[in-house]
């Protein structure tokens, strides 16, 4: 406690000093001039407001901002920037859209923030091969708008309008993963500027095959690497046919146990749900208030089914039978796009509805994932722990994958509360590990889960990661302080 108070007095982040600065030396005017010569004067900023904006994401972490922000216009410039930084020993911080939830963009040692949003071309759609090549500034919403009339779509949707390469960097997923997989399943190839300045095509230049047994899986290595191994400058992604028809449904349950049991039973019955999301009673209440809705305040499942008219009928009927058997009430469904989005409004605004529970506070989202058979026990226990903790929080989950979040509201100026939130998150992470799960289903390790990563993969696992990192980034300049 004394440490926390001291840290707060010094203006440091009390989360174990992760956010304190270990400056490698202020950037010289010559160095900044060299960066400017690469990107051009309009594409570089050292102003405090811009640096501040790039020194944080949507998480509760607040850190020192980077020393300078640059917006490269093409991959050649990215290579030159990286080479310059590496020669001078300056940390390199890739920045997508800053929607991350684990402090991934925080400049713990200062350095150069490389904002990739100006590289935003959709390079090529291979309609017959169901794939697309995008630059790092393209967001998943922009891609789906572009694909609107093609009969294809990209289903990985983390809720926020994140950049697709940022999503690859964090191994993101979201509501559709139960049917279509996560970024790990949907990235076919990546172009990566390595710390050496070389350009790597993880699956070979221009390749976009569906399967391969050729050597080590370099694409897999960079998905989830959180900017610590290189800068992703293009991604080849797998596309999917737009489903013939879609039905959304919601139903309320008498208990958390009944809602989560229904999820397990629906999956065990092999009903091919596209989305199955859980919101607890506190979350539903918050959503009702925030989005002016009138849902029953009870543990609730939101479901979505994709398929032909005929198969949808069967899926819906089976899911209704299972949920009713578990005591569900208020089963409602919607087919038309407008009705569906009204039905899903609560889920879509859940993060902001939770924030509105304590205006002025920051949100911290835990992110564990367990084998589906262990989901009921951990969600029920977490609900009890949350009540006992005295913290303000809600539970929301992509339960079809065994993945759920507690959104905890915390006053960033209250070090004692920050400490309690961290302790709660660590305890939940350890609970998931004890059930053979993972400490992060989709948000990544970032700043705060490095200890949990060690516990998850063990000493040998972490050592192999360290060696890989040292091989690619021997000076430790790629997004330092994250993951390892
Ligand atoms: C309301 C809300 C809901 C969310 N829901 C979900 C969810 O359901 N599922 C989910 O997975 N996430 C969710 N997120 C988190 C977030 O959207 C994802 O982590 C997303 O993948 C981050 O992408 P970004 O472009 O914003 O990356 P940033 O926040 O900019 O960066 C994240 C990390 O990736 C690195 N990075 C970014 N771009 C590159 C690049 N081109 N090359 C190398 N490294 C790079 C950064 O250095 C950093 O370490 C949510 C966030 C919010 C605010």
Describe what you observe in this structure:
It is found in: Mitochondrion. Belongs to the FAD-binding oxidoreductase/transferase type 4 family. Interacts with CSRP3. Its cofactor is FAD. With 484 residues, the chain is an alpha+beta fold. It contains 18 helices and 19 strands. Strands 12, 13, 14, 15, 16, 17, 18 and 19 form an 8-stranded antiparallel β-sheet that branches. A hairpin with a 4-residue loop joins strand 5 (122-126) and strand 6. The protein is globular, with a radius of gyration of 23 Å. The chain binds flavin-adenine dinucleotide. Flavin-adenine dinucleotide (FAD) is lined by residues 57-58, 93-101, 104-105, 116, 136, 158-160, 162-163, 165-167, 169-170, 172-174, 226-227, 231-232, 351, 442-443, 479, 482.
